[in-house]
Design brief:
single chain, 781 residues, alpha+beta, seven-stranded mixed β-sheet, 18 helices, 31% helix
Length: 781
């Protein structure tokens, strides 16, 4: 595969350096070079051996990070539907039935028989009816069919990769070494499960240096193996041996602590330091398989529901972590029980609440689009596994398509209390992108009022400095709206990296018809009104802006905006040359991306009524020192009509985000950690790959081909017949340039990324904050 790092190790023609050596008594194994490379070397080669011997824990340098492929053809059946009654009868539920269909498939290559083999295995699993039975068919295929296969192939592929990278060849290097377990007194240790002497199988062993070793494609140890290691390394025949753990992913904290403890125990008993070492040799496993008609359709960033979206590590992680805390715990146990070789990585390890779109790739007709997200790892997935990935990914993908499908003249929402008939376009109101914008607008209004609280900073400072009417602070009616701050982006290799997309809160004076004639501001001079607004811009606005950019409650707004940036990039590419997205762009057909549960019954008028009620009745009440009572009413706004960008140069990109391009490319097909951070990059793509034609004869009554989970788009005839009545206010930032205008606002080496998002994307409804003083009643507490 093109993205895979080349092996870079030439193992032929090397001179012999050392001779043969005898293996430890009772130890048997196979030569590593013959097992993994199908070759036999007469002697070791220069540089042979596991690195990091003198450190209990070490990490490979980034230049050595790589990816390797592992076959997983069973993954192509992840969309297979559960068997019906006739298919169950045909398939059978015995081992002989499994063996029969397996033999037929191996002989003919007809996937009809592979389907029947899977059905037979599933029915056999149901018939056992024990604690390991998985009744959900989709989960069974993922865990026991595709998962078990990848467990085997991934472990072997990682061993092969490490054999090549560390040059473990020649007669001294043995692999799949079997060691009978004895205790520190030399007595056999009995395995409680088999009732026989326990046997520990090590992945590699060097007869000369007396190194026992374990390859782990993931970053976790197996507790049973640790128990045997504790006995073996303290037994008479192996007290002079060392253990090398080679891990392909970020090593779990409990694994590091467990082997550090064993290392200390060995040092106390034998005096040897570094008897156990861990080498974190970052290597991403890329599953290799070919989709067919039984492959699950992935709707995320997939322009055509008729094509099989091949998904990727992001959709896998979301699927395997569940959508609630309880489901995450149950699924984590299910996958860990089958995770003997690390095929599933770390179920529950990604914190999807931090998910951010990081990259969209080259847009080429017939090939869909690649994408990559970044997210933090959870601090302790065993205690609190992550969940909610499907929802987070779905919102980003739906918003991406919403911005493509919706024509710019419909990209608006409005929370003006005087305009209940102009809240937002009716089609936009049926999408989660529209919902997020309107709700964020309302939440900003509330945060603005909270920030004005005179009992805390900066509200205290503002109230003291604001103009006074009858001793009570008073200021001009204003509007607040959110706009994109200058973003940092990089267009490279046909794709776009969204490095940072901050938001900015603007504040400006605005007059409203609904303001009562006796409002205190009527007693302020124009100069006092302007001064009050300038005070807000300096004291209040920055605090609200921090919340918009960092508070979790605005996370969906930030997600939606990143999708808007990505969508505009795709629009630009399609304008140059037709892509798979052309039929979607400006179609105003949003049926494929409706409001999702639990918001399927969301109503725009509910939010507008909240804003109207706040405007007329107030939501927050503060007391002033002179005995008056202050009421605050606010409504806010959002305007993404223009999005200034800083086009980051290649030099700066490489300096600030070293290896991000390589990490991102790998993440499309395999989850990978970014450098030595707690950040994961994972994505997907290849939505343009179509499922190949038939797989032979019908496997029996009831074709098991899965139905398409996504409805086909209509022809767009449901679009509104008239344009929206609400236009942007004349002072909106969107009027500073024509819709769709692109400008370079960045470095001296522009990379062609958008400098302005076309048309209004969000709420333009005026924002008002006003104050009323009432007499305090004697009975009030």
């Amino acid at each position: 595969m093109a993205l895979l790092t080349s092996i870079g190790v030439l193992l032929s023609g090397m001179p012999a350096l050392v001779g043969n050596a005898a293996a430890a008594p009772g130890l048997t194994g196979k030569r590593c070079d013959q097992l993994y490379l199908n070759r036999k070397y007469d002697a070791p080669v220069a540089g042979s051996g596991i690195q990091g011997k003198n450190q209990q824990y070490s990490v490979s340098p980034e230049r050595d990070w790589s990816a390797y492929s592992a076959d997983n053809p069973a993954r192509a059946f992840d969309g297979l539907k559960a068997p019906n009654a006739a298919q169950k009868k045909l398939a059978g539920n015995t081992q002989s039935a499994v063996d029969k269909w397996k033999a037929k498939y191996e002989k003919t290559g007809n996937i009809k028989y592979r389907v029947l083999e899977i059905y037979a295995r599933y029915e056999q699993n149901i018939a056992r009816n024990n604690s390991r039975t998985i009744r959900d068919f989709s989960r069974y295929v993922d865990v026991r069919i595709a998962g078990n296969e990848f467990n085997r192939t991934k472990g072997h592929a990682f061993g092969r990769r490490m054999t090549q990278q560390f040059k473990l060849v020649g007669p001294d290097w043995l692999c799949e070494v079997r060691v009978k377990v004895t205790d520190r007194n030399g007595k056999p240790v009995i395995d409680p499960k088999t009732k026989k002497q326990a046997v520990r199988i090590y992945d590699f062993y060097n007869k000369k240096t007396k190194e026992l070793g374990e390859f782990k494609s993931n970053g976790k140890h197996i507790p049973k193996q640790l128990r045997w290691d504790r006995h073996i390394l303290r037994s008479p025949g192996f007290r002079d041996h060392s253990l090398r753990m080679v891990m392909g992913e970020r090593v779990a904290q409990n694994t590091r602590e467990a082997y550090k403890k064993l290392n200390g125990q060995i040092q106390r008993e034998t005096g040897r330091s570094n008897g156990v070492t861990i080498r974190e040799q970052r290597s991403a496993a890329v599953p290799r398989w070919k989709p067919n008609q039984y492959t699950r359709h992935n709707p995320h960033f997939n322009p055509s529901p008729s094509r099989v979206g091949t998904g990727g590590p992001l959709t896998d992680a979301a699927y395997r972590q569940g959508q609630s805390r309880a489901e995450a715990r149950a699924l984590q146990k299910m996958y860990q029980d089958a995770n003997t070789r690390g095929g599933f990585g770390r179920p529950g390890g990604v914190d999807f609440s931090t998910l951010e779109l990081n990259y969209v790739g080259n847009v080429t007709k017939g090939k869909g689009i690649d994408y990559s997200f970044k997210a933090d790892y959870v601090k302790n997935e065993d205690a609190e596994p992550g969940y909610g990935g499907e929802k987070a990914l779905g919102l980003s993908s739906d918003a991406f398509f919403t911005w493509l499908a919706l024509s710019p003249d419909r990209m608006w929402v409005n929370l003006n209390p005087d305009q209940p008939d102009k809240i937002m376009d009716s089609a936009f109101a049926k999408t989660d992108a529209g919902r997020v914008l309107l709700e964020a607008d309302m939440e900003m209004k509330r945060d603005w009022a909270r920030t004005l609280n005179p009992k805390q900073s900066p509200g205290r400072e503002y109230m003291n400095a604001a103009p006074k009417v009858d001793g009570v602070p008073c200021f001009s009616p204003i509007r607040n709206w959110i706009v994109p701050e200058r973003a940092k982006v990089r267009q490279q290799d046909g794709g776009i990296y969204i490095l940072d997309a901050p938001l900015k809160v603007n504040t400006a004076k605005m007059d409203f018809d609904a303001v009562p004639a006796d409002h205190c501001s009527s007693k302020l001079t124009d100069q006092q009104k302007q001064y009050s607004v300038e005070l807000m811009q300096r004291m209040i606005t920055p605090e609200v802006q921090k919340k918009v950019n960092n508070d979790p409650k605005y996370k969906d707004l930030r997600t939606v905006y990143r999708s808007r940036v990505a969508a505009e990039f795709v629009r630009q590419q399609d304008a140059k040359q037709a892509t798979d997205f052309r039929k979607i762009i400006n179609s105003n057909n949003l049926k494929r991306w409706p409001l999702r549960a639990p918001h399927q019954n969301w109503d725009k008028r509910t939010v507008w009524k909240q804003a109207r009620k706040s405007f007329l009745e107030g939501e927050y009440t503060y007391e002033w020192t002179n005995g008056g009572r202050i009421y605050t009413y606010t409504v806010g706004g959002v305007d993404f009509s223009k999005s200034p960008k800083r086009n980051v140069s290649r030099v700066r990109f490489n300096l600030e985000k070293p290896r991000l391009d390589e990490t991102t490319k790998t993440s499309v097909q395999s989850e990978t950690a970014y450098r030595n951070t707690e950040t994961a990059y994972l994505g997907g793509g290849g939505s343009g790959r179509t499922a190949p034609g038939g797989g032979g004869d019908d496997p029996g009554p009831g074709d098991p081909t899965p139905s398409d989970p996504t409805p086909s788009p209509s022809d767009g005839t449901d679009r509104p017949s008239t344009p929206p009545a609400t236009q942007r206010p004349s002072d909106s930032p969107g009027d500073q340039a024509g819709d769709g205008e692109l400008g370079d606002t960045g470095s001296d080496t522009p990379v062609g990324l958008i400098a302005g998002i076309a048309a209004a994307l969000a709420a333009i409804g005026g924002g008002l904050t006003w104050w009323m003083r009432r007499r305090r009643m004697v009975t009030e507490d």
